[in-house]
Amino acid sequence: MAPDRTPRLVTVAAAQLGPNNKDAPREAILARLLKHMDDAAAQGVRLIAFPELALTTFFPVMLLRDADEVAGYFEPASASRPYGVLETPHGRPLVDKANALGMDFYLGYAERWVDADDGTSTDYNTTLYYSAAAGRAVAKYRKVHLPGTVEPLADPRAYQQLEKRYFTPGNLGFPAFRAPGLVEGALKADDVGVGGAGQGSTEGKGDPILGMLICNDRRWPEAWRSYGLQGVELVIEGYNTTAWAPQYDGTPEQQTADADFHHRLSCQAGSYHNAAWSINVGKCGEENGQWMIGGSMIIDPNGRVVAESKTLDDELVVATIDLSLCRKGKERVFNFEKHRRLDQYGIILEQVGAKEIPLLSRS
Ligand code: ING
After folding, report:
1. Mean pLDDT across 132-144
2. Dihedral (CA of 221, 4, 302, 130) sign
3. Is 267 a known active-site residue?
4. Which ligand 1 atom minimizes the distance to the CA of 163?
5. What is the pLDDT of residue 194?
6. Residue 239: in which H helix or E strand, if any?
7. Which of 53, 149, 215, 254 has the most ligand 1 atoms within 8 A of CB, as the residue to mutate?
8. According to the model, what pLDDT value does residue 195 have?
């Protein structure tokens, strides 16, 4: 019997941002996000993705010693208000707009989680997914792979990357989730008989399975595969990626070309290796005197770029994606159940860093 390839169409958008310079008022940044949502709605978009740390400047490039100044970049969160950002003056308008337009959104922000019991706080580089159909945020992800250093590089000319200084590595794992209300006729748990129809008969028929990554995560295949093993159909990833830095070798042009290439390679490979669509959306351009790459892209489950940005500024990249195109890869080349060999992969979980194998002897 021919596999079911009924189209499961969703119109989505990568809402690329140009620079959020340090002195940019929160209101001005928020206005750009809201404009993106209005422009997206005019094109029938149902799901919009904003970059990593979309609400502020990418402050990890700066060595900030004033605790109050650092605190100003973070959004409140706690067990009683896990999505506190959505209740702030720069978050609530996004919810109101999403509800008015019937549009879901992925939003990157700096999260300060306060423990209700002992009052201690932990800082994460976080994203949330807001579902217009559910009328609430339905998922949170905290960036697992933090690049850069805790202490600033000594070279005064160096561009800093201090995410390990400001954030704690994510502790939520890679939790895939389903987004309701995006595809017609999605199968629900209630529709499956008490005995539960065989797994195969429900695969690729439910509400879309989504996964969230943040920036550097895209360079780690383990992150994508963790979602692939949950049946992910769409990975959303926002980023702020330095185009070049004076401390690295190569001209700014050469470094930027490499940064663009490695960005595209990582995203296309992640989508292809897990037979999933991806929305990859950057904050870019010259922010606080440092250049960040653009290259916001929507990539299909075959690894092909179906839409991409052309500028280094605010730019909406829109595509209507068919989630049923994931099925071929998931049922053939990347049918994990058929082809993966857990008994041979032990080293991947047993070892953190690379350990060179022994030297050859002279004899
Ligand atoms: N930025 C960069 C990124 O992974 C980086 C850091 C750039 C690491 C290039 C390695 C090479 O895109 C963030 N914010 O992770």
Report:
1. 98
2. negative
3. no
4. 14
5. 57
6. strand 234-240
7. 215
8. 53
d(CA 52, CA 310) in angstroms, rounded, equals 19
- Taking alpha carbons only, the member of 219, 221, 207 closest to residue 176 is 207
Q: Mind listing the pLDDT tens digit for each residue in 322-361?
A: 999 999 999 999 999 999 999 999 999 999 999 999 999 9
pLDDT band at 198 (very low <50, low <70, confident <90, very high): low
Give CA–CA dist 309/2, Å, rounded: 37
User: CB-side exposure of 289: number of CA atoms within 13 Å?
Assistant: 7
Report, as an integer, the average pLDDT of 152-169: 97
Q: State phi, psi for 87 to the nearest 5 degrees.
A: -105, 5
Q: Given 140, 143, 205, 330, which residue is catalytic? A: 143
Q: Taking CB atoms and a 6 Å cutoff, what residues make up the pocket around ligand 1?
A: 147, 161, 215-216, 219, 239-242
Maximum distance among all alpha carbons in the chain?
76
74: closest CA among 137, 135, 142, 123? 123
Residue owning tokens 């208000």? 81
Minimal-distance CA residue to ligand 1 atom 14: 240
Cα–Cα separations (whole angstroms), residue 22 to 74, 84, 165 = 14, 23, 19
Quick one: angle between helices 252-273 and 221-228, nearest 10? 20
Instruction: Show the tokens assigned to 253.
Output: 């042009």
Helix H, strand E, coil C: the string for 301-333 is: CCCCEEEECCCCCCEEEEEEEEHHHHHHHHHCC
State the SS3 of 149-168.
CCCCCCCCCCCCCCHHHHCC
Residue 143 appears among annotated catalytic residues: yes
